[in-house]
Amino acid sequence: MDLFVYLKASNIKEKSVCLNDGDCVDIADGVVYYNDRYNFARGILMGQLLISRAYLKLPKKPENYDYEIFDTSRWAINKTSLDFFSYTTTMIEEMFASGAVDISREVTAQVLSIGIGGGFINTYLHYNYPNMNITAVDVEPKTLEIAQKWFALELDQRHHVVIMDGIKFIEQAVNEGVVIMNVISLHGKIQESAKRVATCGQYPRPESLKEKYIEFAKYPPAAYYKDEFP
């Protein structure tokens, strides 16, 4: 069972961040019960709807008792911890499982992400795959602000964000002669492997895919319990 639970009212870190379309979201830290234990996470919520989430690193135990250690807004985002209840992990897995990108930590790839959300997909790929060149496109500038302020999204020479409509970005790139290749083409033809893609949590993860990716990524299920600030 997967629960996102508020510890107390002050656990809402930023309230009513309003986007250009009039929707407003809250940034909140809470507790997730998973694998028979509690984990700390940060989420973007629209009312009771959880839009995006990332796990937090546990801070080092201070030498002297310090109440600031309980301020989760100071805790770092865990950039290696995957959330196996989230569509974000399925999308990361499918990029490799579909054959669109070779399964290798040293793979060289040009990745285009339409929409930022909390920025976790981009951040995870940027942190764990040092040869990927990632471009994210989002029509809403506030999402970039949220991702940078609360979800540790960093921009550099191989991680870029463009603020514009994603469809217009693709149309413009095609008109300029750029060939965009993905598991889903611009002409609506879907590769056989792409039929298993789960988008935005609408469909269950393909059977055994989680286990295959854990084996590839060498990802221990309890890794995020031991992570600390560097």
TrEMBL record:
This is Uncharacterized protein. The lineage of its organism: Eukaryota, Metazoa, Ecdysozoa, Nematoda, Chromadorea. It comes from the Eukaryota.
